[in-house]
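Inverse folding, one chain.
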């Protein structure tokens, strides 16, 4: 287990890091794209908010995460709602599923906590477990994100987060390695997919003085 994994095992024990509601972008994509009743993987499910959404909307939901505390929280919120999903503790770079198994996949805000090699392996694993024609919805951080601007640069895409302002969400990520993307890097990492669509989600704070800046990527096998 690397330092980031250990960090998230601890963070997922805290209620503030167990969000209850799915992100609207993931909701919209899933409802208009994934086949009803299809097998859908929430890759890096965290505390299970998107797995729960999938289960309550008629999908056959699967969730995996390397955080044992995240999986425990996921199982709890589904049990509370009398919903079913299959959970496993696993890394994004070594998925415990058969080839061509899933009808769709969500990977929301997960990859950027991994290093370059793990991200490349994760992209290959996503490709492997998806059925032909299936789509993945992936959220990663762009070079325009405020965390990147103030970080210690190890390479163009790899940084160490440096955030001194306790009021900002990045404060909990202070000192963590993180991987950021531009469009060229998105295309390189997911090159095996036959079609890649790259859109942007930007949310600013404090009178637009800083912003979360993400790429919303759609990859079709």
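Residues assigned per position:
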């Amino acid at each position: 287990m690397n330092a980031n994994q250990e960090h998230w095992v601890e963070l997922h024990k805290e209620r503030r890091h167990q969000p209850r509601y799915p992100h609207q972008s993931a909701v919209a994509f899933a409802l208009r794209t994934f086949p009803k009743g299809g097998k859908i993987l929430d890759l890096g499910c965290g505390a299970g908010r998107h797995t729960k959404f999938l289960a309550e909307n008629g999908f056959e939901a699967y969730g995996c995460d390397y955080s044992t505390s995240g999986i425990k929280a996921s199982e709890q919120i589904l049990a509370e709602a009398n919903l079913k999903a299959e959970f496993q503790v696993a890394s994004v770079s070594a998925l415990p599923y058969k080839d061509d198994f899933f009808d769709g996949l969500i990977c929301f805000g997960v990859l950027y906590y991994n290093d370059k090699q793990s991200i490349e392996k994760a992209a290959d694993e996503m490709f492997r477990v998806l059925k032909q024609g299936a789509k993945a919805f992936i959220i990663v951080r762009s070079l325009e994100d405020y965390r990147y601007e103030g970080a210690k640069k190890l390479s163009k895409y790899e940084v160490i987060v440096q955030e001194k302002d306790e009021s900002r969400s990045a404060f909990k990520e202070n000192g963590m390695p993180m991987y950021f993307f531009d469009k060229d890097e998105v295309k390189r990492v997911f090159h095996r997919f036959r079609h890649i669509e790259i859109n942007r989600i930007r949310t600013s704070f404090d009178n637009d003085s800083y912003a979360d800046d993400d790429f919303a990527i759609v990859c079709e096998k």
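The two ends are 30 Å apart (CA to CA). The beta strands are 39-43, 60-65, 86-89, 102-108, 130-141, 152-153, 158-160, 177-179, 195-205, 210-220.
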